Amino acid sequence: QGVVMETFNMSQTRGYKTGGTIHVVINNQIGFTTSRADDVRSTRYCTDIAKMVAAPVFHVNTDDPEMVLKITRLALDYRMTFNKDVVIDLVCYRRHGHNEADEPSATQPLMYKIIKKHPTTRQIYANKLVQEKVLSEAETRSVINRYRDLLDIGKSVVPSWVPMQHHEFTVDWHPYINQTWTTQVNTALTESFFKHAAKVLTQVPENFILQSRVAKIVKERELMYEGKKPLDWGAAENMAYAGLLEEGFLLRLSGQDSGRGTFFHRHAVWHDQQTAATYIPLQHLSADQGECSIIDSVLSEEAVLAFEYGYATTEPRSLIIWEAQFGDFANGAQVVIDQFISSGENKWGRLCGLVMLLPHGYEGQGPEHSSARLERYLQLCAQHNMQVCIPSTPAQVFHMLRRQAIRPLRKPLIVMSPKSLLRHKLAVSDKSDFLSGKFHNVIPEIDDLAVEKVKRIVLCSGKVYYDLLEKRREANLNRVAIIRIEQLYPFPNEELIKVLSGFQQVEEYCWCQEEPLNQGAWYSSLHNFRACIPEGYEIEFAGRAASAAPAAGYMSQHNREQKLLVEQALGLQPNV
After folding, report:
1. What pLDDT sits at residue 303?
2. Residues 6 or more apart in contact with residue 494 via CB below 8 angstroms
3. Is 52 helix (H, G, I), strand (E, B) or coil?
């Protein structure tokens, strides 16, 4: 469904080349009931797609095992010599269709008339060996009978086991097995390293000319790292990566516009305005730092996410990140999310610490640029298979990313990352937050409210928190406390219960989200909210009305909806 073409397209790109791949096509010429050649494809051969990268294609008759072996060796020699892709098309058939219960002659009558009369590959090869006097007929029957007898009694048909050889790429996964998500690790940085990294991250090479806006951002980061200004998202994210690299972790960040950041916030890759040369400060921390790769990917979601999943399942001491240009676009990779990321460990025992950064938030940009479909990820959550977080401050994303690598738990991390919060005046963190602290699954009320006067508690996640906070301060609503849930799965029940227990006079509880009623966290997390609030209380919903589309297409409608849900959450408007 396109992923084969995308794989060929990636084969010679900087971020995804593997030194050549040997593609083996098991071409059994059966497609359930799609039998007519003019229904199957628009090319003569299924391998014609390989022509896009000029890969050689070997069509080989699988009734000739020796030729299959010869072609396989030739393909391997080609790959090792030229480090490019090569294709082996094994032209074969299925004698009994797709399975033992299938009757392929119902839809492919002419082909299966021929197949019924056609000797098996085993018969053809046995006759060849007899004709060449390699074996006698009796010896061929003896080989066949011995093989069948071994199968019947359940013994190995292999004469002797060849133990797997450990090589330089062998990874010991034992330290990551049976770990729990509650394990605590230190994610803060020392002041000395923070100072060193700050210098590296803001030092422009001699004669390297930055674009004017980028130069301004780098200058502002210098002030942030010195403690003269609070840190924003981009500064925090780069510092998180620097700390992990210095500690020897591998960093791999890929996606469309990932070097710069879709929203012009990251600038992990600098571009010289005169020569177009690039410079990555994170690659210059120290001589023995971890490997750092920051890749602007090909224009694909499914193929790139699948590649990064595979990378993360083979490299545990790393931080592997795939970033969607907008979180909405991740649905182009839904097969990878359903089949591999959410269920790979449960099905195959494959651990994976992949991070997915999915820009998410309602800012009036319409239904295709507002929602990463949080509800879909929460629906896939079970048995502690992955983590879903919505960090709301730069310090939170810093500690979250470092926790993902340092904590010996290799589970996928799904992040609803911000857009407008990247530059929000309130979404900043002090330098001290990076020299101490940790990722908080729940963030309690930050204003100095008299707890005995608080009658209403609003629970929320993500960007809407700042809309609620500003409106509450504007209206001087000291009876309303706002609590952020930064990790929605695994749900931090104990932490939320502890925070709520500090408010003994509360009469009303409300969950506020920007997403429509049938989307977001409401349906998937309602049972968790109810388990945490005191017995006998209900929890209200404040958000957009149920909708087939994620968001409105008009800014005026968006603003009306946003204003209403904020006022409903704070008790200024009745919930319908």
Report:
1. 94
2. none
3. helix
Q: Which residues contact 181 (CB under 8 A, 6 or more apart)?
A: 384, 387, 409, 411, 490
567 touches 458 (CB < 8 A)? no
Residue 302 clears pLDDT 90, i.e. is over it = yes
Q: What is the rounded CA–CA span in Å between residue 566 and residue 552?
A: 17
Q: What are phi and psi of 446, to 5 degrees?
A: -100, -20
Q: Are 417 and 358 in contact (CB under 8 A)?
A: yes
Q: What pLDDT does residue 39 have? A: 79
Encoded tokens for 1: 């469904």
Arithmetic mean of pLDDT over the chain: 95
Q: Are 355 and 320 in contact (CB under 8 A)?
A: yes
Please name which of 445, 487, 452, 440 lies closest in space to residue 469, comparing C-alpha atoms. Answer: 445
The pLDDT score that the predictor gives to residue 31 is 62
DSSP state of 505: S
Specify the DSSP class assigned to residue 32: T
Question: What average pLDDT does the segment 167-190 reach?
Answer: 92
The DSSP secondary-structure symbol of 285 reads S
Is the domain defined by 191-429 classed in CATH 3.40.50.12470?
yes
Contacts of 382 (CB under 8 A, 6+ apart): none
Q: Same CATH fold, 445-569 and 191-429? A: yes
Residue 33 has pLDDT above 70, yes or no: no
Backbone angles phi, psi at 251, to 5 degrees: -120, 125
What does the pLDDT read at residue 166? 79
Residue 271's SS3 state is strand
Tokens 């929320």, residue located: 460
Angstrom distance (rounded) from CA 106 to CA 133: 41
CA 14 to centroid of chain Cα atoms? 20
The residues, any chain, with a CB within 8 Å of residue 328's CB and separated by 6 or more, are 368, 369, 370, 371, 372, 373, 550
Kindly report, residue by residue over 391-438, the tens digit of the pLDDT. 999 999 999 999 999 999 999 999 999 999 999 999 999 999 999 999
Angstrom distance (rounded) from CA 397 to CA 233:
8
Listed by start position, the domains of the chain span: 3-118, 191-429, 445-569
Neighbouring-strand partners of residue 539? 509
Name the band, by pLDDT with cuts 50, 70 and 90, for residue 95: confident
Class of the 445-569 domain? Answer: alpha beta
Q: How far apart are CA 509 and CA 541, in angstroms?
A: 9
Q: Which residues are CB-neighbours of 537 under 8 A, at least 6 positions away?
A: 509
Q: How far apart are CA 407 and CA 392, in angstroms?
A: 21
Q: Which structure tokens are listed for 348?
A: 């195959």
